[in-house]
Amino acid sequence: MNEASAVPEAGVVSTASLGAIFYTFLTVGAISFGGGAIAYLREYIVSDAKWLDDDGFLDGLEISQTLPGLNTVNMSVIVGDKLRGIPGAIVAALGLVLPGAAVIMALGIAWGPQAHNPNVRYFLIGVASAAVGLLTTVTLQLGHKQIAKPLDLGIILVTFIAISIVRVPLYVVLLVIGPAAVWLYRPSAHHEGLEERARHLRERLRHRHAMYIRQ
User: Fold this and answer.
1) C-beta separation of 26 from 51 below 8 A
2) pTM exceeds 0.85 for this model
3) pLDDT (tens digit, 9 = 90+) per residue, 109-134?
């Protein structure tokens, strides 16, 4: 490892061996399903191994979502590269993909005779529901800082309304709201006044609630 790679990156708490990286991502690939893999990745990488902190993990997740391909595979490459450079990215991606590839091949062979079995369909619906629950959990765990800020909350609400209610095509939302968010968070932008007013409003609401309880 060269001297540059030995310097910890922002968000990286500790380094790891290639074997540990491969085993961790192999475990995640073997026990996770669907979008819920992100929740397992956070649990193993941040909570258990403590290789990254929440900010570092969130940075990698944001980058992986902007790149083509599966978010989880992109995330494995980003995390592996943060920890051990190119070799770490390779073993992380292999560890994550191998279990799923083996399972898909086995299920593909067995799917034909069971394609119209209602029990199989009920099982898949249950798996999809569990994946949604896992995604919701990791969203709340990672997004509590952003959801608490007025500007971030406004961007989230506008994006949700545009996609879920108005049904604006995703590429239009990315081309419009994405650059707008970058402009709002440009280095020269200052949001201290907005943040201070929001903090003052929260304190007033807490004070009124306390006064109401005393009465």
Assistant:
1) no
2) no
3) 777 676 677 787 777 788 777 777 77
